[in-house]
Amino acid sequence: MIVTIDKSSGFCWGVVRTIEKAEETLANTNENVYILGQIIHNPHESSRLEAKGLKTISHQDLEKISQEKNAKVLIRAHGEPPSTYKKAAELGIDIVDATCPLVTSLQKRVEKFYKDDYQIVIYGKKEHAEIIGLRGVCNDECIVIKTVEEALEKVDFSKKTVLISQTTMERATFYKIKEALEERVKELIDGGEVSDRFTAKDTLCKAVYGREDKLKEFAKSNDVVIFVAGRNSSNGKSLFHICQDTNPRSYFIEDISELNMDWFEGAERVGITGATSTPQWYMENVKEKIEQEMSSVLV
Ligand code: SF4
After folding, report:
1. Which of 27, 57, 144, 213 is paired with 192 by a 20 to 30 Å CA distance?
2. Are residues 44 and 117 in the same domain?
3. Looking at 160-164, 253-257, 274-278, which range is the least confident one?
4. What is the rounded distance in angstroms from the CA atom of residue 29 to the CA atom of residue 262?
5. Structural domain ending residue among the three candidates 73, 99, 125
6. Residue 271 belongs to domain spanning
């Protein structure tokens, strides 16, 4: 049996940047270094950084942290709403901003549309950290939707509207929502220009959807696919659906202990892949485990 790791899997550059900032900050201070929320949606990588001293906190802990001298608080790749920066400044907390530059630029775009009086429609998950940040820049005056039906039901078509997306959502669904909204606007304006009433900006991250074709090829070229990701990873869920649609013998695991050797019965080629938050070292561990277990079965 041949076990291979998908060459196009592993951390996206935004996550690499955040982790580097965290490690650099930890290396250059003797004071406490905190991260606001889990650094990435992967428990194994979070534990690795926690072992180096990174402490995960919530917004409620900020006041307590402010009693410490020189403590640093990292903002993770998903970004934060302006209220977090304001509160940190009021409390005198030293912020290390590791927001992914793509998320920062998305926040700026939303802020601009808000100032230009657009009705903002976001394809995403309302309580996802990135969306909480986006909601913050437009004073929570936006509509967050996940499906075509929800979009058609919630959008006020009398308003000038912009559709954008959380960076890690599914591309196909974004375009279905865009088409449905365009169609409805077309019906309502009766011959006018759709672009005067509605615009859609594809703000999906290429690090996620750029992988879709390669992932399909990888899933097709293996008999069994093991998809490794944190259960709360948004892009992990979308990428896993692509694997599963291409190869029904695809299995999602967060932890090595979830591997079931029955999955590999009769398989000659096993592929391991993951989300943009899945560390390479953990996929290597999964590969080693499968090879060890299967060689003992075959002996
Ligand atoms: S998936 Fe894209 S937007 Fe999100 S952290 Fe990675 S590079 Fe940035």
Report:
1. 144
2. no
3. 274-278
4. 48
5. 99
6. 2-10+209-298
Six-digit token string for 44: 């194994």
Please give the positions annotated as active site: 130
Q: Give the per-residue pLDDT at 299.
A: 52
Q: Is 12 in the pocket of ligand 1 (CB under 6 A)?
A: yes
What is the rounded end-to-end Cα distance, in angstroms, of the chain?
A: 13
The enclosing domain of 265 has a CATH number of 3.40.1010.20
Atom 5 of ligand 1: nearest residue by CA position: 14
Ligand 1, atom 2: nearest CA belongs to which residue? Answer: 205
Please check whether residues 89 and 108 belong to one and the same domain.
no
Give the ligand 1 atom nearest the CA of 77.
5
Pair 243, 269 in one domain: yes
pLDDT per residue as tens digits for the range 142-176: 999 999 999 999 999 999 999 999 998 988 999 99
Q: Answer yes or no: are the C-beta atoms of 277 and 229 closer than 8 Å.
A: yes
Burial class (CB in 10 A: 0-12, 13-18, 19+), 213: exposed
Specify the ligand 1 atom closest to the Cα of 103. 3
Mean of the pLDDT values across residues 86-98?
95
233 in contact with ligand 1, CB cutoff 6 A: no
Q: Which atom of ligand 1 is nearest to the CA of 207?
A: 2
In degrees and rounded to multiples of 5, residue 45 shows phi and psi of: -70, -35
| Residues 207-252: tens digit of each pLDDT | 887 888 899 999 999 999 999 999 988 889 889 999 999 999 999 9
Q: What is the pLDDT of residue 298?
A: 58
Looking at the fold, whether 86 and 106 belong to one and the same domain comes out as no
Do 258 and 231 reside in the same domain of the chain?
Answer: yes
